């Protein structure tokens, strides 16, 4: 932020400075009116909030710009209030079921919050008045919206009031709206992410997510400089300017008698994507208590699923130093997978174990009894982490320690509790130094990152670079030319596309073929991660634990 001031004259904004400052004041008034309508700003704090923003730019004067109408709240900001005014009041949950929540990344509908509509004019006014540079804008937006947002304690009280009155799901929907309204959840960016279904999977291209091609790079991407906070998901990140987290807000939860907190993901992969983080900075782990914690969560928030990565490197988890779960308001394709076979335990008639018809190796425990879910899930966990079968390249313990782990995911359905268990192994060998059960090299042009919980459940998050790369491939196919040299890493996919299209240069056909190819690659990557390549092998493993085919 620039501070080119002359004593007693305010900032040096150049020729026509009065008009340019008027535009800043008008845009600021729109922002404060927006905060009154959507962020819970108390009208008694209006002058204080405005002055806090003015101080960011060393502005020692202000006046309402009545000609635009914004000074009295009748301008652009007023169009955002509509029927949603007062949504931030304690216990206000009337808009929690708004249609805006129906689609991941969708913007609010008419009469609802649209922070970009008030932030963009503010940014433009600041630039025109030479109060900042373009590179400053993201940090300025984070700072201003952080100032205008409620304190965490106030939001937590409001969350608790809505939960007490209307239940956990209403409270979560209200909190998601707030985190979108204060710009922590980047709805406008989410709406631009390509997303489609193919081969029974959901494929997305996340334009904002950085690409971490191996676990070492992923781990470095989640470290913090200076040791504060200890990692990127510690509670100390809330409001931390050092990572532009001034708008981050969290709510406390209790799982298994332990303190956790929930925050939504700013660049969510799916509808209302969030993470549930242990309040204590303790290492990731999956044990019997994990199943209890996941069930505690879905008991309070039955419209969400919740799960976690296997707590070993190379098989998904990037923040292994801090215990946490992931979940949200959208069922993953694996949750909907049909059973290939059903098994049970002798003398137990209130639970069933299903081998899923799924490219990866996954089983599902179904019961209306929490205790039964925990008992059977832990029996499978203990059996798996001790299982060794060199013929299948499965070794329980290697030179680098334990290699096998479970990735569990819980959801409530009309059948009761369902605990989905994905069997993972992070072994390596000379042929596959990045992982035997990792995406194989012929697919790395599409996806080289470790396959975590979300992708293992059928929602693939592909890197943003693909947008440009696939456009080049599409153009080459439409021209009938050869694969561009810059995209030679896509040679396996190119050959399959050419065979599929058989000379067809129609743009529509090419786009359809590209989507089909992406889905096919993702399906085969899941097959790479499968520890048992045939369902009969999964059945044999479960039978070795005492389960019987029904």
- State the domain count: 2
Radius of gyration equals 26 Å
Oligomer: single chain
Strand arrangement across the biggest beta sheet = 5-6-7-9-8-15-16-12-11-10-18
Mean pLDDT: 89
Summarize the topology.
Elements (H helix, E strand, L loop, with lengths): L4 E2 L3 E2 L5 H22 L7 H11 L21 H4 L33 H14 L8 H12 L3 H15 L1 H14 L5 H4 L4 E4 L2 E6 L8 H7 L29 E5 L2 E7 L9 E5 L9 H13 L4 E3 L16 E5 L10 E6 L6 E6 L5 E6 L2 H16 L11 E2 L2 E2 L1 E10 L2 E10 L27 H4 L2 E5 L1 H15 L11 H11 L5 H23 L5 H10 L3 E2 L1
Parallel strand pairs: 4-17
Antiparallel strand pairs: 1-2, 3-4, 5-6, 6-7, 7-9, 8-9, 8-15, 10-11, 10-18, 11-12, 12-16, 13-14, 15-16
Helix pairs in contact: 1-2, 1-4, 6-7, 10-11, 13-15, 14-15
Protein described:
It is a single chain. By secondary structure, the chain is of the alpha+beta class. It folds into 2 domains: 5-189, no CATH class; 193-459 and 532-549, no CATH class. 35% of the residues lie in helices and 16% in strands. The chain contains 16 helices and 18 strands. The longest helix has 23 residues, at 507-529. The protein is globular, with a radius of gyration of 26 Å.
Task: Write out key terms for the chains shown.
eleven-stranded antiparallel beta sheet, 18 strands, single chain, alpha+beta, globular, 16 helices, 550 residues
Task: Summarize the structure in short.
This protein is of the alpha+beta class and 550 residues long. 35% of the residues lie in helices and 16% in strands. The protein is built from 16 helices and 18 strands.
């Amino acid at each position: 932020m620039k501070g080119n001031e002359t004593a007693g004259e305010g900032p040096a904004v150049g020729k026509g400075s009065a008009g340019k400052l008027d535009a800043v004041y008008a845009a600021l008034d729109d922002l404060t009116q927006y905060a009154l309508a959507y962020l819970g700003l108390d009208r008694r704090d209006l002058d204080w909030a405005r002055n806090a923003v003015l101080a960011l730019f060393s502005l020692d004067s202000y006046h309402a710009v009545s000609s635009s109408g914004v000074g009295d709240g009748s301008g652009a900001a007023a169009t955002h209030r509509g029927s949603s005014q007062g949504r931030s009041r304690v216990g206000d949950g009337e808009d929690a079921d708004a249609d805006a929540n129906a689609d991941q990344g969708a913007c609010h509908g008419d009469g609802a919050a649209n922070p970009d509509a008030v932030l963009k004019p503010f940014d433009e006014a600041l630039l025109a008045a030479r109060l900042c540079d373009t590179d400053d804008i993201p940090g300025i937006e984070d700072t201003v919206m952080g100032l205008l947002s409620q304190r965490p304690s106030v939001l937590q009280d409001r969350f608790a009031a809505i939960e007490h009155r209307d239940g956990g799901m209403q409270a979560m929907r209200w909190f998601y709206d707030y985190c979108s309204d204060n710009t922590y959840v980047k709805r406008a960016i989410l709406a631009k992410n390509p997303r489609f279904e193919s081969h029974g999977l959901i494929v997305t291209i996340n334009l904002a997510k950085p690409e971490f091609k191996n676990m070492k790079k992923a781990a470095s991407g989640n470290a913090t400089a200076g040791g504060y906070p200890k990692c990127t998901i510690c509670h100390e990140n809330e409001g931390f300017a050092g990572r532009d987290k001034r708008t981050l807000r969290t709510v406390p939860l209790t799982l298994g008698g332990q303190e956790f907190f929930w925050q939504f993901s700013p660049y969510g992969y799916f509808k209302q994507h969030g993470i549930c983080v242990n309040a204590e900075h303790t290492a990731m782990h999956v044990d019997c208590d994990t199943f209890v914690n996941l069930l505690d969560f879905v008991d309070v928030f039955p419209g969400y699923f919740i799960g976690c990565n296997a707590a070993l490197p190379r098989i998904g988890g990037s923040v292994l130093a801090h215990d946490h779960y992931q979940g949200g308001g959208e069922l993953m394709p694996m949750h909907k997978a049909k059973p290939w076979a059903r098994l049970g335990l002798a003398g137990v008639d209130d639970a069933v174990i299903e081998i899923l018809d799924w490219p990866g190796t996954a089983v599902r425990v179904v019961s209306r009894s929490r205790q039964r879910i925990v008992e059977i899930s832990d029996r499978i966990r203990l059996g798996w982490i001790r299982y060794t079968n060199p013929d299948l390249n499965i070794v329980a313990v290697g030179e680098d320690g334990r290699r096998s782990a479970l990735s569990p995911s819980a959801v409530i359905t009309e059948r009761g509790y369902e605990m989905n268990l994905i069997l993972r192994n992070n072994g390596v060998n000379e042929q596959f130094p990045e992982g035997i059960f990792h995406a194989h090299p012929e697919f790395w042009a599409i996806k080289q990152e470790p396959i975590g919980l979300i992708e293992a459940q059928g929602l693939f998050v592909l890197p943003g670079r693909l947008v440009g790369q696939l456009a080049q491939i599409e153009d080459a196919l439409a021209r009938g030319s050869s694969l561009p040299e810059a995209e030679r890493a896509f040679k396996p996919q190119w050959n399959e596309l050419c065979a599929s299209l058989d000379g067809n240069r129609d743009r529509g056909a090419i786009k359809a073929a590209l989507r089909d190819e992406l889905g096919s690659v993702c399906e085969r990557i899941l097959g790479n991660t499968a520890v048992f390549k045939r369902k009969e092998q999964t059945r044999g493993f479960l039978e070795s634990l005492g389960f019987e085919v029904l």
